[in-house]
Amino acid sequence: MARVISLANQKGGVGKTTTTINLGACLSELGKQVLVIDIDPQGNATSGLGIKKVDVTQDIYDVIINELPLQKTIMKTERSGLDIVPATIQLAGAEMELTSMMARETRLKEAIMTIQDNYDYILIDCPPSLGQLSINAFTASNSIIIPVQSEYYALEGLSQLLNTIRLVQKHFNPNLAIEGVLLTMFDARTNLGTQVVNEVQSYFGDRVYKTIIPRNTRLAEAPSYGLPIIDFDRKSRGAETYLQLAEEVVKNDD
Ligand code: ADP
Ligand code: MG
């Protein structure tokens, strides 16, 4: 049965989507069956994996709001072993619509349970907010990976995220764990980057991944080609480090 992992941090631009796409692709490279579920109305994981808006007829909105079977929304990517459930801008309305619905926190969980046996890993790319969509993701997950940008104010807002995690643990999902904290966009040339790494490590201890993702322009270029980094530029530092991360994630789950 798949391990379900949310990629979450309510701050935008910290590397959630980049990590979802590339960790997903690298896990599939290691022979795992992977499903990415995009629950950000921006749909960046969807386009970053090469899915064109015109080809999406049904998406995660229809699953969460209209109870369409999740299986019907799964699309193949160019990489074998890596599938995606797309999101489109219509998902933006779900946040409001959910507030008046029954069993609103468990809707995604119930949908995922129907296909959980078909995958080894299910990665949920969360939106930059702690609303109903993120709560649905946390309720459906075994654990959470928190990407943190190696910059000033890296830890800002994390107490809010940790509070939300505690609330979900208390009310909906007692077994929800923090899978790991991932430092992203690290720039070894600045003292600041190193300071932030030390700060995050002293706050989260051994929950911080040994793998640190460097700032690498190839990682920023790959999404416009609709490809994960290992299929776009396998020799790049970005590809090397995301492969290393995938190995670390698999090792931690043993
Ligand atoms: P989020 O999903 O948290 O909003 P993204 O993954 O979309 O963050 O990343 C924000 C921007 O930074 C994107 O343009 C992305 O391509 C770029 N980016 C992410 N990680 C890296 C990295 N390690 N090196 C360089 N650019 C990156
Ligand atoms: Mg994103």
From TrEMBL:
Domain annotation AAA: ranges: 3-178
Among Pfam families, the record links this protein to: AAA_31
Q: Which reaction does it catalyse?
A: ATP + H2O = ADP + phosphate + H(+)
Which InterPro entries does the record associate with it?
Answer: AAA_dom, DNA_Partitioning_ATPase, P-loop_NTPase
The highest taxon in the source lineage is Bacteria
Belongs to which family?
A: Belongs to the ParA family.
Subunit structure of this entry?
Dimerizes in the presence of ATP but not ADP; ATP-binding is required for double-stranded (ds)DNA-binding. Interacts with DnaA.
Q: What is this protein called?
A: Sporulation initiation inhibitor protein Soj
> What organism is this sequence from?
Bombilactobacillus bombi
* Lineage, uppermost ranks: Bacteria, Bacillati, Bacillota, Bacilli, Lactobacillales
